[in-house]
User: Which sequence fits this backbone?
């Protein structure tokens, strides 16, 4: 999509530090990190939400999960642990409507409230 921030990043129109990249997936640091390691993992092709991705390209879901493993290794947090967050639609906290995962780590992330 022409006006999508993440599509522009994937196309190279907006420069980012490319932590991981293959033909289908791109990973780069979040500009507002909430943990010492906070990486965004996106499909290069536009899918607005995780629902769209899972219905239209389920194989890309596996590619993104594989990318998260590689990114965690590159960042040195694969052994200590990390959290993957995937927000879907407004009530799920999604702010940019290009499907993306947050990979958080580098410190103890903590428990979810009420658990």
Assistant:
């Amino acid at each position: 999509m022409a006006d999508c921030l993440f599509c522009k990043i994937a196309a190279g129109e907006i420069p980012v530090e490319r932590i991981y990249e293959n033909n289908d997936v791109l990973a780069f640091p979040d500009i507002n990190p909430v943990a010492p390691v906070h990486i965004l993992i996106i499909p290069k092709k536009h899918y607005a939400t995780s629902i769209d991705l899972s219905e239209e390209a389920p194989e890309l879901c596996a590619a993104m999960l594989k990318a998260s493993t590689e990114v965690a290794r590159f960042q040195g947090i694969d052994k200590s642990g990390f959290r993957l967050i995937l927000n879907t639609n407004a009530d799920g906290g999604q702010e940019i409507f290009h499907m993306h995962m947050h990979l958080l780590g580098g410190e103890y992330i903590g428990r979810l409230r009420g658990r």
Summary: The radius of gyration is 14 Å.
